[in-house]
Amino acid sequence: MTAAPIVIIDYNGGNLASAAQAARRAAADLGLPHDVVISGDPSTVRAASRIILPGQGAFDHCARELGAGLRDAIEEATREGTPFLGICVGMQLMAERGLEHGVTPGLGWIRGEIAPMDDATGLGLRLPHMGWNRLDHTRDSHPLTEGLAADAHGYFVHSYALRGYDEADLVATAEYGGRVPAIVARGNRCGTQFHVEKSQRTGLRIMANFLLWQPVPAV
User: Fold this and answer.
1) pLDDT-based confidence at 140, cuts 50/70/90?
2) First and final CA of the chain: distance in angstroms?
3) 76 is catalytic
4) Helices in the chain by DSSP H: which ranges?
5) Structure confidence at residue 219 (pLDDT)
6) Rounded to whole angstroms, how far apart are CA atoms 25 and 12?
7) Is position 88 annotated as part of the catalytic site?
8) Taking Cα atoms as reference points, which of 66, 116, 140, 30 lies closest to residue 6?
9) Could you tell me which residues come within 8 angstroms of residue 199 by beta carbon, excluding any fewer than 6 positions away?
């Protein structure tokens, strides 16, 4: 029997091919027999073994392009326990709402909103926050960060970040004019503000950890 695929969700967003390549590389390194597919078909999403939602661009555009069909499929699959990884805006969509170009509802899986990085602006730091930044773990251990070096860095490209969050959802943060949530997780749903697919060894390790992760579904 063929294993259920790892699905990279295609919703007219960016970084689909690079996210798929990172997942294939991590699966191959682990010797996992999973197929990795890029698909915007809700039935394929429902049948996935793992779901990856990349994201590039504005929160409101990505939320609109996701649409009701894919959103419902993601909700149903993850409610049944399918592990989910959101990348960059894909992580941001896990929040209650985004404030980019107006107020846009998110998936509401974690507390908080995606807001302009005013602290960075106030300190004269450039936006977007672009480049390598160290990941500071907020927990003694988590399956997603297993095996990461103490000075592991992720590659960030963003001007908006999660605020008003629940500390219990944080796995790692970065520093850029203040504390920036970098990895979040609740139940079987997790996300990274940085681009896993562009973060070289650190990114591949996190992707491998995600493929091995056996989380308990969120209540």
Assistant:
1) confident
2) 31
3) no
4) 16-30, 42-46, 59-79, 89-92, 118-122, 200-212
5) 64
6) 23
7) yes
8) 30
9) 153, 154, 155, 206
Residue of 34, 142, 153, 195 with catalytic role? 195
CA 132, distance to chain mean position in Å, is 17
**Rounded to an integer, what distance in angstroms lies between the CA atom of residue 95 and that of residue 113?**
6
pLDDT higher than threshold 80 for residue 174: yes
**What does the radius of gyration of the chain's CA atoms come to, in whole angstroms?**
16
Catalytic residue among 88, 129, 153, 158: 88
Check: CB of residue 188 under 8 Å from CB of residue 83: yes
> Could you tell me which of 127, 130, 135 has the C-alpha nearest to residue 183?
135
Active site residue: 62, 153, 190, 197, which one? Answer: 197
Q: Does residue 197 have an active-site annotation?
A: yes
pLDDT at residue 1 in the model? 42
Q: What is the mean pLDDT of residues 60-69?
A: 90
pTM of the model: 0.95
Degrees, nearest 5: CA angle 81-86-92: 120
Q: Decide if 172 contacts 133 (C-beta within 8 A).
A: no
Q: Is the pLDDT of residue 15 over 60?
A: yes
How far apart CA 89 and CA 93 sit, in angstroms, is 6
- Judged against a pLDDT cut of 80, whether residue 136 lies above it is answered with yes
> How would you write 75-93 as a 3-class SS string?
HHHHHCCCCEEEECHHHHC
**pLDDT digit string (tens) for 85-98?**
999 999 999 999 99
Question: Residue 118: pLDDT above 80?
Answer: yes
